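User: Please predict structures.

Assistant: First:
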Amino acid sequence: METHWDRVMQKSAEVFGDFQHSTGIQRKELLYKIAEVLESLGDALLQTAAEETNLPLARFAGERARTCTQMRLFGDVAAEGSWTQAVIDTAIPDRKPMPKPDMRKMLVPIGPVVVFGASNFPLAYAAPGGDTVSALAAGCTVVVKGHPAHPRTSALVNAAIQEAAVQCGWPAEVFQLVEDDSFECGKYLTQHDHTAAVGFTGSLSGGRAIFDYAQQREVPIPVFAEMGSTNPVLLLRDALQHQAPAIAKALAGSITLGVGQFCTNPGIILGIRSSILDHFTSLLAIELSLIPSFRMLHMGIYQQYTTKLSSMLDTNGVETIYHARQEGQMVASAVLARVDGDYFEKNPSLHHEVFGPFSMIISCKNMAQLTRIWQQLHGQLTTTLYCSEKDLKAHPELGGIARSLAGRIVFNSVPTGVEVTHATVHGGPYPATTDSRFTSVGTDAILRWARPVCWQDCPDAWLPPALQNVNPLGIQRKVNGEFTRTAL
């Protein structure tokens, strides 16, 4: 029996038939137009998002600006075209003992993409977020399963994107929003025959469920799930000795930023037991006490935070250093805890993320224990080192460990605040993500929604423009092993 969900996916596949052949210039026009329409909504969009999430209006002004900047950046990437990784190896007909064929390859859109919108960034990781933007830039149609925490915001965005699509001459259904918070809907969309790939931002349990649904299909599909992280911070001795006040202030701001509802929140802090670490701990508690508490996004996140927090603080060996007084419904208390390295190693339950304004200091007896614990925290979006040149010279092994643990290694600054650039990596080994080879932020996010195709001895007129001899798009291509924009 046909359902609404089925009709949505059928339409997405139908529109993809044409949209996959759009040029980079056409996709740039679409993404620029979406940004323009979103900006034209003015304060109405920002006020709606603020009302639905308990976050301030200024936060959404910045978030919309980031989202629209990201749209224009991906539009530029689509138009420039080198992201398709066009490669040409020309034929050598007289090669002995056998002729060499003409071989040409490039990335092509993978198909309709289903995106699960996140609750903590209604404008940057939900309906109009990085998954949607990068998929459209790649030439894929998009179906977003809206998050139930901000339905009115998602509806406004849906209307804006569809209006932009129509203005650019595309069917409105190049983008579609499904508003249904049931598990059945998520499973159905993931396992629908027309779904070619899935993007997800959220919890480990949610991401893993979606991943498993995709593998249970007759034809498995890729799931690019970003599932959070404890983002361990290392405090090395020389840096801490000379910069403790500044580090404490920076980390307090990062721990409580957005009421701790960032996937890059620094949830674990590693240091070597000493009077210096004790002094830093006191400073961090003071800095946290100066930051007011606010309401969390919705009751679900608040209940998860308080439940996990209680479990963490009730664990043997965990000492509460600072716990802000709670005032008001859904107000999240900032919390700083401390545990001895021996207790931490013996209790794996302490290694998991507490999503909210919480961080735990691990007091290690020596550098050997610190690095051992750090390595146990595998699968991170980020890891941060507060260090001096003296620290790095004394511990050269830290570089290799950091690279094996996380997708982004931060030096002497906080991990929150993910810049959208060509070099950004927002990913990491499992369980941070389901595929550490890709990023969900930055221009390389487009690579998730494409697959390589090779044309062998194909007539020039049948080739995609990116591979034709005259290079009508003017893109950079690798021709016989050398990068060039020159026509053949």
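Second:
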Amino acid sequence: LGRAYRDGKGVKRDLDKAAEWMRKAADKNVGWAKNELFDILWRIDTPESMEEMISVATANAEAGEGGAMGRLGRAYRDGKGVKRDLDKAAEWMRKAADKNVGWAKNELFDILWRIDTPESMEEMISVATEFAEKGDGNAMGRLGRAYREGKGVPQDFDTAAEWMRKAADKNLGWAKNELAAILKNSSNDRNQ
């Protein structure tokens, strides 16, 4: 019922009712319901919902649930329900990645990019390289961006294009667009 009210499937969309039903499921220790409750509370976005959202996620994360760890990372990244803190965001996203939460590794890369210290750049490249070499297209594209911008690695348009081409070969639309831009810019540089 929580999902039905969240999505407006068979009932009128109502995030408050969605939260009410998802809260009941979470109280019955339905594990996934706790993360979905977090997501609904995020969308409600009132001071009360933010406070509950952080409480739910913190308890779930401290119990070892990786998805909750990543959600706390997002909260700290965006300053939703907590004071914005990229270091705490990276800490929680690392924990989620260590729990094999698929999306956490790429979000960790993005947070480290924003922190932009020599240490974060080194970790960012290490994280992306590890997952790119395992075939993760999003990590490949992120490496392409790093080489294009010279963030954490020397700027190298050929290597940027190589990684972005691998990401584009994974059928990622954004990577195809960025590959075209890299190729266009590098051909303009060669013609000058």
